[in-house]
Design goal:
- This protein is of the alpha+beta class.
- It is about 45% helix and about 20% strand.
- It has 26 helices and 29 strands.
- It has a seven-stranded mixed sheet with strand order 17-29-28-27-18-25-26, sandwiched between helices.
- α8 (about 225-245) runs antiparallel to α9 (about 255-280) and α13 (about 400-425) runs antiparallel to α14.
- The longest helix is centred in the C-terminal third of the chain and has 35 residues, at about 720-755.
Length: about 800
């Protein structure tokens, strides 16, 4: 089933839809768009139904009471931090745009705009005028355009590689012969052959660099393509003059081999970088384009018709076939199947779904057709909220990345000045060599590596965590998490589940365990109280072992706040509830709630419960201790209950009876003493504490994603993800430091060596491609789910 998406400007002309990946003349994302075309098609985005596909309202109202919207956009033609800065400046200069953040690593942006002051077509065309093509994040042909871009880049790379090999073959004799050893006519013929073979490289393979650089000059700005294109052009012109005028100023040597080699290396680096970028951003892409574009809906006549997902409404009845994706949240009416919810909950095992059970939008129907009734659609679904959080993470910028963005343009200007200064210095010695040294300086420098060092690693890490069921709301939180030395847990809903389990059962002489449980479960069957549910589960497990059947009762009558009573079919009243309600003496208070069972003879049984401790709670706490972190428990429950639970999981510092303000005060005290604190709560009543922590986790599937303000939202029902996230954050920052160290060292060494004439043009091209590629490859290692041995210690 194709992914749910829309077609937008750049893929629309008139009333028809054209796939821009194959339309002639459409710029690929490696080549920036020429501004000023397609104004009418952009206006279509000003319709509210259109911008709702890639925008969502934010909390406040703008001018004249109109809404303020946050839109997620993909930008084609970006390559470096300077590109991101240019786009941000264009957006922020547009009246009505309140905020704009663009990620150079993700090629995505977040735009907050006032509906009363501007429309999407206004700020999108402002970006288009800078030469970059903005597209809604939900554009229908995004994947097809990426494939077309890859194919075109492969063609350019193939032409450059083939011509490079031929040019090298004709250039080699000149390197291995001394002056006068080769006939002058032969030498000229070899140079002419190299010139002819270089023309396809310059006119076809170099086309994106020249086009982007020309646009930079027209708009009076600097990006990474400008120095590269200057280097290519200078090399070709100098070598051409040497070919046509062998006795002239530049006739003693030509550099077609260097030209074709560094073009080949640059294109190879960009192609590999593009492939790796798609893989590191795979989790977000897989989520964003997961819904189908159409589904079968039952009409008023009871017949099935296929309709667009946009037309699905609450209470519609849909039929979802095997292999299709559930398009909305809803309830299964007919049929039984298995659903894959792994990308939404982190649960890798397919889950059985049958009549009366809920299914969620974005999960896959695996085995059989089912009919479902829609309960939530669009932005109200949990799927939409997950995508919104991931989009927010993909456009957020860590502080280190912001610094790299600010330095990108000044660095490029420095490169141009350094190349000009070196050329002037070397010109009196050898004009040809002076120009080639300038070319080497222009090509060898790579601010891309610096700008990609941090966001590439953090995006890869966020994608890997998303596959496990952890959403990262702010990329900079990974940096803070790596420094955490204290983890504070809430109790209810975090270390424990929102349920109880039977811990102890005391019986009257002559009454069997199975009989007491069966009678209590029969009384409790109509109650929604957590203790009643725990009794029902315990009785069900006991009946499997003993074969005890439930006794016959009249309809149970619930007495609010006290318990439940009914009459046995054989006669006599039975009660389940508090000690006073059952007419028995209360025993000593335990760590959890108690319930009592009585009949006409008096006390029959007492059930003592404890909170259902998560199975991996102890192991998770032990792992955090092994990583050298302090672990605390702050709970609003009774101090003795908190201490008892803390002892079970291995937490020595447990505090009960804490109000939210008490928790916040204790956390701030720890921070004042130098601790970096991570708070793990259920996201429901821990808002102030989560906000006050250095890093916060909202844990549990009941987390209201639309209101969650934690840095990390844990969708999977596993506490072990907390230490795993800490280990991943530490590894992420280690790779960020490696990337920054390599990028800084490369530029610090490469530029001086090029200025001294020790770096040839082809070697400069190889170095530039390798520097950014190494950063992306190093970051890509974080996409692996395999935990390295050194991540813990």
């Amino acid at each position: 089933m194709p992914a749910k998406a829309r077609t937008f400007p750049g893929v629309m002309q008139g009333a028809g839809v054209i796939n821009s990946a194959t339309a002639a003349g459409q710029a690929s994302s490696s080549e920036r768009a020429e501004p000023g075309s397609g104004d009418l098609s952009w206006k279509l985005l000003d319709e509210r139904d259109e911008w709702l596909e890639f925008s969502r309202p934010v909390g406040d109202e703008g001018a004249s009471g109109a809404g303020v919207w946050e839109s997620n956009v993909v930008f084609e033609g970006m390559h470096c931090a300077a590109c991101a800065v240019t786009i941000e400046q264009a957006l922020r200069a547009t009246p009505g745009v309140r905020e704009a953040d663009v990620s150079a690593a993700a090629h995505r942006g977040r735009v907050v705009w006032d509906e009363a002051a501007t429309k999407p077509s206004d700020w999108m065309q402002a970006v288009l005028r800078t030469g970059y093509r903005p597209l809604p994040a939900s554009d229908a042909f995004a994947a097809a355009r990426r494939q077309a871009e890859t194919r075109k880049m492969m063609w350019r790379l193939g032409v450059a590689g083939l011509c490079m090999m031929q040019v090298m073959m004709y250039a080699t004799p000149e390197y291995f012969t001394g002056p006068g050893e080769m006939e002058w006519d032969t030498l000229r013929l070899l140079r002419w052959a190299q010139w002819v073979l270089s023309i396809p490289v310059v006119l076809f393979s170099c086309q994106p660099f020249f086009r982007n650089a020309w646009l930079d000059l027209k708009l009076r700005r600097v990006s990474m393509d400008l120095p590269v294109a200057l280097g290519m052009l200078i090399t070709f012109v100098v070598s051409t003059l040497g070919t046509f005028e062998p006795g002239g100023l530049f006739g003693h040597q030509v550099y077609f081999d260097s030209l074709t080699m560094f073009v080949f290396f640059l294109l190879t680096g960009r192609w590999l970088e593009l492939r790796l970028r798609d893989r590191t951003a795979g989790a977000l892409e897989a989520l964003m384009h997961r819904l189908p574009d159409s589904v079968q809906r039952q009409n008023a006549a009871g017949e099935w018709e296929r309709v667009s997902v946009r037309r699905v409404r609450v209470d519609d009845v849909l039929r979802v076939l095997p292999g299709e994706v559930f398009p909305a949240d809803g309830l299964v009416l007919r049929g039984e199947t298995s659903a894959d919810e792994s990308l939404l909950t982190g649960e890798s095992t397919p889950l059985a779904r049958g009549q009366g059970q809920r299914v969620i939008a974005g999960s896959h129907n695996l085995t059989a057709p089912v009919d479902m009734r829609v309960e939530q659609v669009g932005a109200d679904t949990r799927y939409a909220q997950i995508v919104a959080l991931m989009e927010q993470a993909s456009t957020s910028k860590p502080q280190i990345a912001l610094l790299a963005d600010r330095l990108a343009k000044p660095f490029l200007i420095f490169v141009l000045l350094a190349a000009g200064s070196a050329c002037v210095w070397w010109w009196p010695t050898d004009p040809g060599r002076a120009l080639m040294i300038a070319v080497a300086i222009l090509v060898v420098t790579c601010p891309c590596a610096l700008s990609l060092a941090t966001p590439a690693a953090m995006l890869a890490s966020a994608g890997a965590l998303a596959k496990k069921g952890v959403l990262v709301r702010r990329l900079q939180a990974l940096e803070a998490l790596a420094q955490v030395d204290m983890v504070v847990f809430d109790k209810t809903g975090t270390l424990t589940r929102d349920a109880f389990v039977l811990e102890e059962l005391h019986l009257r002489d002559g009454v069997s365990r199975a009989r007491a449980l069966a009678l209590a479960a029969a009384l409790a069957q109509g109650s929604l109280h957590p203790v009643s549910r725990a009794l029902a589960l315990a009785a069900a497990a006991e009946s499997v072992d003993s074969g005890m059947e439930a006794p016959a009762l009249t309809v149970p009558e619930e007495v609010a706040g006290q318990g439940v009573k009914a009459r046995l079919a054989s006669g006599g009243e039975v009660r389940l509830g508090s000690a006073a309600f059952c007419g028995v003496r209360a025993g000593p208070a335990g760590g959890g709630p108690s319930s009592h069972l009585s009949d006409e003879q008096g006390w029959l049984a007492s059930f003592h419960f404890r909170e259902d401790l998560r199975a991996d709670a102890r192991a998770s706490v032990d792992q955090l201790h092994a990583e050298g972190m302090k672990v605390r428990l702050l709970s609003g429950d009774r101090p003795e209950a908190a201490a008892r639970l803390g002892a079970l999981v291995g937490i020595d510092d447990s505090r009960g009876g804490c109000l939210p303000d008490d928790k916040l005060a204790l956390m701030r005290q720890a921070q004042a003493e130098g601790a970096t604190v991570a708070m793990v709560g259920d996201g429901l009543n821990d808002g102030p504490v989560l906000a006050g922590a250095n890093v916060s986790f909202a844990f549990g599937r009941s987390v209201p994603l639309a209101r969650a303000r934690a840095d990390f939202v844990v969708l999977a029902d596993r506490l072990s993800l907390i230490p795993e996230c800490h280990a991943k954050a530490r590894r992420t920052m280690r790779i960020v430091r490696q990337n920054l160290g390599w990028a800084a060292a490369y530029n610090a060494i490469g530029v001086p060596l090029a200025m001294m004439g020790w770096v040839s043009a082809w070697l400069a091209g190889l170095g530039m491609a390798a520097s950014s590629l190494l950063v992306v490859v190093n970051a890509w290692r974080l996409s692996s789910d395999v935990q390295q041995p050194d991540e813990v210690h």
